[in-house]
Amino acid sequence: MNLGAASFAMQGGAAHGQPSPEAHSPVGQACQEIASRLGVSPHELYFLGDGPLAHTLALAGLATPERQVSAIERSEMLAQAKKTLPVSPAGHLLECEMGANAYSLGWVNGEIGTIQEIDSWGTRIHQSGGLLHTDLSYGLGILPTPHEWDIASIDARAFGGPMLGIMALKSRTRWSNPLPTFSPSFGQFHVDQRMVIEAAAALKRYTALAKTHYERISTFNKALRGRCTAIGNIDIAGDPAGIPHIITFSVLYAQGEELVRAFALEGFHVASGSACVSTNLEPSHVLSATGKLTHGNVRLTIAYDEPDDSLNRFLEILPRVVEGVRQA
Amino acid sequence: MSTPALEIDTSGLRCPLPVLALARRILEIPIGETIAMTSDDPAAGPDVHAWARMTGHTFLLEESSGNGKRFLVRREATHDPSNGLPEGF
Questions:
Q1: Do A246 and A156 share a structural domain?
Q2: Size of interface A-B (CB pairs under 8 A)
Q3: Which residue of B has its CA nearest to A232?
Q4: B6-74: which CATH number, 3.30.365.10, 1.10.760.10, 3.40.1190.20, 3.30.110.40?
Q5: What is the CATH number of the domain that holds A176?
Q6: Where does the record locate the signal sequence feature (chain A) (predicted)?
Q7: Are A114 and A233 contained in the same domain?
Q8: A258 to chain B: nearest residue by CA?
């Protein structure tokens, strides 16, 4: 039995129709579970070493020089863009002229939580004869999965899974392996089947947690936005109607690195899109593209089972931490 | 466009210091006048835009200047006369 990338690599350009794993084996069941969440069949799934690799190959395989990519996609997609498509301040793709061969638009943005109308964009792209690649990582297991796309890529770590990239390629999609020279040595793409089983189990757990705690985390999201507004001079990124567990805000006159450190001292692990925290000293392109303040940035990715005590404590310490860093 | 009332150079400073300098120094010029700031911080472009939106001043112009950019901002009668600067700044 061959799984995933090994199969596509061996098949070179014609990536479709490899045998599915036996339905009743543990890995077969795992594939079935992941496939049903994505609305595809197991033989349309490919497993790769990590999410970024899946994102890169998924878009690169839509062989066209005309890739148009939303300005808030991951760098794996933006690096392949012939044209970058602007977004609104909330992070929604702006109206644009359809007609390119291939588009890349992520479903839920992993930095600011904004949700794109994938089904509606996909329909329009299909009507104009184009193909849509979408990164489904951050909504999977939480919201009903959209279906009007042609190829999707997922980083399993987004739902608490292992380091594993998943690519879902609808069998009608014209896609060719962008790395054909790797075909003879597909071992480079080998994925341990236990990773697939672990990913399916993680997705199941995550789905159950998100279902139980969605309202609770949404309440926290609103409370945090309210608290930021009350403190003042905080630029909240993304769409208030976005996914509740991803919240990003920037504190005017504060340094991102100092904020990360101050929250760590209080026991909270937060990320930051500020230039001072990034390795290349460039601020987050998502913040720039949405016109948000890039310094003093704090990004929270909240676990759906984060206890109320800790969420409440975050709200409680926020004014003090912000004031402390602003004065520092 | 008329000559800016004040010209500042924040080259070498990294975020949030250029915007902090702008917020402080714009208070030295009369409302309606402009301040020019030069910066070589890659974050300065998006930050000056966002800062102007948040405080209520008007972003007029962004142009290349040496290794960085030069920004032109007009001081407005904003709702918060201190630009949200914490006390002591």
A1: no
A2: 70
A3: B84
A4: 3.30.110.40
A5: 3.40.640.10
A6: none
A7: no
A8: B16
Q: Which residues of B touch A288 (CB under 8 A)?
A: 45-46
Note down the domain range covering A279.
213-327
- Residue A177 confidence (pLDDT) above 70: yes
ipTM attached to this prediction: 0.93
pLDDT at A9 over 60: no
DSSP-assigned states of every residue in A117-160: -HHHHHHHHHHTT-EEEEE-TTTTTTSPPP---SEEEEEGGGGT
Residue type (1 letter), A204:
K
* A40 and A76, same domain (yes or no): yes
Residue of chain B with shortest Cα separation from A296? B16
On the CB side of A198, CA atoms within 13 Å amount to 14
Distance of residue A81 Cα from the nearest chain B Cα, in angstroms: 21
Band of residue A101 on the pLDDT scale cut at 50, 70, 90 = very high
Per-chain mean pLDDT for chain A: 89
Report CA-CA distances (Å) from A66 to A58, A170, A326: 15, 20, 45
Residue A94: name the closest of A110, A77, A117 by CA: A117
- Average pLDDT per run of 10 along chain B, which is 89 residues long? 90 92 96 97 94 97 93 94 79
Looking at the structure of chain A, the number of domains it has is: 2
State pTM to two decimals: 0.90
Query: Between A233, A256, A283, which is nearest B46 by CB?
Result: A283
Is A37 a residue whose pLDDT tops 90? yes
